[in-house]
Design a protein that fits this description.
Length: 643
């Protein structure tokens, strides 16, 4: 991981690193809408896949058809060309072997009075006249293009019909084959024309050649050049036809796929829309069912499911309504007999000095349990208001420091009894928020009393902070803590971390449940953190202004003196040993070390409430802005800081 981080830093520091990231962002930004549409539209994906597969099939079929047509055209051309060339070669050799005559109608073809060169010109012209544009004739002397053998005779120079360039139109490989072997040879080449033909471009052709002898018995090479222009035009016509038909087929298949998929996707989209409306609470929505096919059966099953769901939800709502009404009615109805019992218990409690010790103790227990019973009834009534949605918020600007002071004043007797101190940090500056003072005080009273009760006689630290649009109050204790998974269950009704643990304050088990509902009513958070044997911290975060959404908390949920943070700090900067080491401090540090294995004082003093990044996630303290190095640490012990 360290090596990957170093490579990333090197890449970021390279000249092209930032530019590359900027280029990637610029390229991705316009593509994101298209990617989103592609991922969300199944009809588009099916049609696109159909088009791609259809295009692949058409291309494969087109290549096969074009290859077959091309092969057929070339085979037919070769067969006709070989037949034509064989006849021409036979005629040429026959004319060379014809006996001479002094006169007669064929005197132009006789040997009398004519040399081999003149005879060759006449032969090429006569052979080419029968082909017109079907073929051209080229005559080359034996060894043309190569070193002539000593004493070789015969036709000198090259002759061709139709302004054909004889040397460029016959490939050297074919010449070597004709010069060094007997028989007929063929190959595919291009016919190139001389300047006398104008700007006529080269044309593909089939070239067939053979070694013959002239009138003097000397060898020469005769070549037939068959242009493939017509075959090429026919092949191009086939290609255009296949391409046009392929485009129409692909478009037609795409349209068919779109129509078919639309018949399936439309009911699915309708079902998705109705499901969204059902999840929004509109339980009377139903699908329109037409026909008797699979889609219709799906719609009927969906409607039955929605109807059953509506019935079940209605039953649950009725049951919940009955439960809430039962709790509310019982709570109200119990108040009258409870008042009577309270009056009688007070009389008995006041006269306990006249009773024997057992009866007097019973009177005290009766009074205590009646107090707890009254608290339980009050909490049940409050819970019933939250369940019924009848709880109202009377928000006004308040200073949370005043609320914290009232809570601490009420909890100090219990703290003295437990041997704990309640210390306040961050109260040097006003912490103003629009909130219901009564509900906030109830939340903080629950948190402080629970911290004192579970603090095992150690200090309880209350921290206040404000940053951005949020204010926060955190209550930290160093007691038994919370096991993994208990931080979320601690707010459940009547839940206890240790069922065998006795309650010394007469709690009802509903305090944290009511507290979290009060926090939600403000639009805030109430969260818990803890570790076994390392204490716990509860954090209340409220918006500074009512109805303002929270984006973060100015106090990290996990305190800085947790085991994980202390281990991380020790790994990064080990503390030097000495008299000022952990567990000691001037003025009674040894006593604190005896009372708590986790010294809270030094850890707390290193983290004053400072402005935090309001976008920090709830419960994540890694993005909280650290205190500036030049800020004096002694500010935490200002007025009200060491209560």
């Amino acid at each position: 991981m360290r090596g990957g981080r170093q490579l990333r830093q090197i890449a970021d520091g390279a000249p092209g690193g930032p530019l590359l990231r900027l280029f990637v962002r610029l390229v991705r930004r316009p593509l994101l809408p298209a990617v989103r549409i592609w991922r969300r539209n199944i009809q588009l994906r099916v049609v696109a896949a159909t088009l791609l597969m259809s295009l692949a099939v058409v291309l494969a079929l087109g290549f096969v058809v074009i290859a077959q047509v091309s092969r057929g055209l070339l085979e037919a051309k070769e067969e006709a060309a070989q037949s034509q060339a064989a006849g021409g070669f036979a005629v040429a050799q026959e004319k060379a072997n014809t006996p001479f005559a002094a006169d007669g109608p064929d005197a132009t073809d006789n040997k009398v009075g004519r040399d081999a060169s003149t005879w060759m010109n006449s032969l090429v012209k006569q052979l080419a006249s029968g082909g017109q544009t079907a073929f051209e004739v080229v005559a080359l002397g034996a060894g043309t293009g190569e070193q002539a053998a000593p004493g070789a005779q015969g036709v000198k120079g090259a002759r061709a019909s139709g302004n054909v360039d004889p040397t460029a139109s016959v490939p050297p490989a074919l010449r070597r084959s004709v010069n060094h072997a007997t028989g007929t040879f063929k190959t595919f080449w291009q016919i190139r024309y001389t300047a006398g033909a104008g700007e006529k471009p080269p044309a593909p052709a089939l070239v067939i050649g053979k070694r013959l002898t002239d009138i003097n018995g000397d060898p020469y090479d005769l070549y037939y050049l068959f242009p493939l222009t017509q075959e090429e035009e026919s092949l191009n016509l086939v290609k255009v036809t296949i391409a046009t038909a392929g485009v129409f087929v692909v478009v037609l298949l795409g349209a068919i796929a779109w129509l078919v998929v639309r018949q399936v996707v439309t009911p699915v989209r309708m079902a998705a829309g109705i499901a969204e409306r059902l999840s929004a609470g509109r339980l009377k929505e139903r699908m329109k069912v037409t026909g008797e096919d699979d889609i219709a059966r799906l719609g009927e099953a969906f409607n039955k499911m929605a109807q059953n769901l509506q019935n079940k939800i209605q039953q649950l709502e009725d049951l919940s309504r009955l439960q809430r009404r039962f709790v509310s009615d019982v709570s109200h109805e119990l108040r009258t007999p409870l008042t009577t019992v309270r009056m009688a218990a007070d009389v008995i409690h006041d006269a306990r000095v006249d009773f024997d010790p057992v009866t007097a103790r019973s009177a005290e227990l009766l009074a205590g349990q009646l107090d707890r019973f009254e608290s339980l009834l009050s909490d049940l009534l409050e819970i019933s208001r939250f369940d019924a949605g009848a709880a109202d918020l009377q928000a006004e600007p308040i200073d949370l420091r005043d609320v914290v002071r009232r809570v601490i004043d009420g909890a100090e007797p219990l703290a003295e009894h437990k041997g704990s101190r309640i210390r306040v940090l961050g109260d040097t500056q006003p912490v103003i928020a629009e909130a219901d003072a009564r509900r906030v005080e109830r939340v903080l009273r629950n948190l402080v009393v629970n911290a004192v009760e579970h603090g095992e006689g150690r200090d309880v630290v209350v921290r206040l902070a404000s940053a951005g649009g949020a204010v926060a109050v955190a209550v930290r204790d160093y007691g038994v803590g919370l096991k993994p998974g208990e931080a979320t269950r601690v707010f459940n009704r009547f839940w206890r971390a240790d069922p065998a643990r006795a309650r010394t304050t007469g709690g009802t088990g509903l305090g944290l449940s009511i507290a979290v509902e009060d926090a939600r009513l403000h639009g805030g958070w109430l969260q818990a953190w803890g570790e076994p044997g390392g204490g716990s911290q509860f954090r209340l975060t409220l918006p500074r202004t009512a109805d303002e959404p929270l984006r973060g908390s100015p106090i990290p949920l996990e305190p800085e003196d947790s085991r994980a943070n202390r281990a991380r700090a020790a790994a990064e900067a080990p503390r030097p040993g000495g008299a000022g080491g952990p567990g000691t401090r001037p003025g009674g540090g040894a006593e604190r070390a005896d009372r708590s294995p986790i010294p809270p004082r030094p850890a707390v003093t290193t983290a004053l409430p400072v402005p935090a990044d309001p976008t920090a996630l709830p419960g994540n303290g890694s993005r909280v802005v650290a205190r500036p190095a030049d800020q004096p640490a002694a500010q935490e012990d200002g007025p009200g800081g060491g209560r």
